[in-house]
Amino acid sequence: MTRLLNVIMAMMCCLAAMAQSLEAQLDSLLLPRYNASAPGFALVIARGDTIIYERYRGMADLEKATPISAATLFNIASVSKQFTAVGVLQLYNQGALDIDMPMALYFPEYRHPLWQTVTARQFMSHSSGIPDLRSSYSRDEKIYATDSTSIEYLSTVDSLKFAPGTAYDYINPTYTLLGSLIERRSGLEFEAYQSSQVFARAGLVCDKDIEYFNPASQPSPGAHGYIPFENQVADGNNASRCYKDSEGRLWMKFDYGEETFFATRPDGGIYATARAMARWDSALLKGLLLPDSLLRMARSPHITVSGSPWCDYQNRPNTAYGLGWFIDTTPGRETKIYHTGDNGGFQAYLVSYPASGITVVMLENRNDLDRWTTQLAIERLLLSHGLIK
Length: 389
Fold this sequence. Notes:
globular; 8-stranded antiparallel beta sheet; alpha+beta; 18% strand; 11 helices
């Protein structure tokens, strides 16, 4: 018995040492990159419901010197798309809609014949061939776009970039239209449906863990997004938006109404904490939102991203897109399911390694550091500690 206890104690000590080593290595990787007085990050690494690493660094609000904490809400940008996809798939599971029927069935006002050829499945997988014509919008139309104004042009589309379902082209307006599809088939306003049927079922509390952006009010306690203002001088036009960190580096606040922040909800409008995003991934894997078979379908390849001639976004080797998720099938590694997001001064990524049960969430309120390089460095450490394969 004594020998067994000694073995158990030795194993526990070994595991504790490994955990400390991982913590120290992650700290060494991340903390030197982020000045504590500058915009920063929230990082959570979890195995199921257990957080194995958690760090917050930098300022959520430079003007008020408010530090980033576990309660800080970040705009997660395009990571929001998987929440919309789950809403659509729930209605599909209930028989309220068919993701393989022509979108014209649900939007009869779109009368061009091409709407008889595109489906919700193709919208969710960015393979519809619908072009993004918002480049023709004025500056103010882009800055102050709403769910409805961002899809106005869809009624004028008269040609496709490629045959539906044959190629990948990542665009946002088709996801915004999926929000309207949820409304039409559920009978609820989009945000009401998502709050009650998606957020709540995942155990996420609205206005605390997660919320949709409202142009009338900044999320509280929400981070502001910032961009570096290097080699430029704050003047009367932008001085009220510029702040210096302790190293003298100048940052410009980059939120709604300040150039390129998009407020549309179904494609990128969620604010959430890092802990909430880890709980979201865990809730999905527990089957709290979709049947296992439907979740596996959504997180399996539907269209090849690698080598697409139509789009550069996440156009990397061994990459495909499912229904709201990217899928990385690098040979010799376990499948990685992830999504990235960029909006104004925010960057986000959520990475899931289902075979190992590991989830990595990193949310930033700055956009100057290469997210993919950071993610790969974290992945190498997780591999070296045997947490992923």
